Amino acid sequence: MSDEGLSLSVVTINRNNALGLRHTIESVIGQQSCRSEWIFVDGSSDDDSVSVARALSTSLAATIMSEPDSGIYDAMNKGLRAATGDVVLFLNSGDSLTRPDVLVSATQRLTSTGASWGYGGVRYLDSLRQPRAAYLFAPFRLAHLAHGYRTVPHQAAYLRRELLVSLGGFRTDFGIAADQELLYRAALVEEPEAWVDLMADFEAGGLGSARRPWSFPLDMRHARADAHSPEGTERVAELVATLGVAALQTALTWQSRARSSVRAQGAGLRR
Predict the structure, then answer these.
(1) Strand partners, 38
(2) How many domains does the chain contain in total?
(3) CA dist 42 to 39, 63, 117, 172, Å?
(4) Where is the Glycosyltransferase 2-like domain (predicted)?
(5) Are 44 and 72 in contact (CB under 8 A)?
(6) CATH code assigned at 92
(7) In a domain, 2, yes or no
(8) Residue 89: helix, strand or coil by DSSP?
(9) Which of 219, 213, 229, 254 shows the shortest CA–CA distance to 147?
């Protein structure tokens, strides 16, 4: 292994989000020195995203492309095909890194252990980009991901490129759960290191936020079936487990919304 450690490709996809893109590029520029490249995949934006990318990325080893695509995971696959680093991070437009040593820390961890991949936690930002909550999935439990009970945040997931290529990248037929389906397949090859470290920020209200609470467990049942087709009583048990997780996720979501509503009403009364 090179004394310089692992090289890194940061892939950013974007469509009509020039403001969010600025935050992403600035956070990449602000990273401590490591062998890295930045790959920008734009979906033929109508705003000034491409101009922003070109203007702000002059200090980076950047690849910039803008062309129509078939959705976010098609764009992410384009970024993967363009990547040359040993490790790939998908940090999309509007996402940012929490501190200047995140990239160095991730590559050093993978270099020292030889792991194929690892991930950290994320912070949720409000509309003013202030942290409002955090999410960690540690220790990693394959069953929790497989049944849609927990997710691995792709903004904080660092995978060796050879692993991603061997898996064929993202399945564009899998909808908004394609990132988790890919990470599930990666975990079947080798379970990841789970780092207790908040490594990325992203704004709440993105694509994943539009997912209905019961849909992710159903998506992951599809992923499990593709990896291993259950039969007979095993199929029934799989369905029962999936419906149980879906019901739990729905209940937790409504409970969280109810608490938020009560807090908002309380704040209104205090005013």
Answers:
(1) 10, 62
(2) 1
(3) 10, 11, 26, 17
(4) 9-114
(5) no
(6) 3.90.550.10
(7) no
(8) strand
(9) 219
Bridge partners, 123 (sequence order): 134, 201
Distinct helix (H) and strand (E) counts, the chain: 9, 9
- Please write the tens of the pLDDT for every residue from 185-219: 999 999 999 999 999 999 876 655 556 665 888 99
Domain span including residue 185: 8-267
| Helix, strand, coil abundance in the chain, percent, nearest 5 | 50, 20, 30
Strand pairing report for 96-97 and 193-203: antiparallel
Does 218 map to a domain? Answer: yes
Helix (H, G, I), strand (E, B) or coil at 8: strand
Q: Which two tokens stand for residue 193?
A: 């290191």
Residues 217-269 pLDDT 10s:
899 999 999 987 544 445 545 544 444 544 444 444 444 444 444 343 444 44
- Measured between alpha carbons, how far is 106 from 27 in angstroms, rounded to an integer? 15
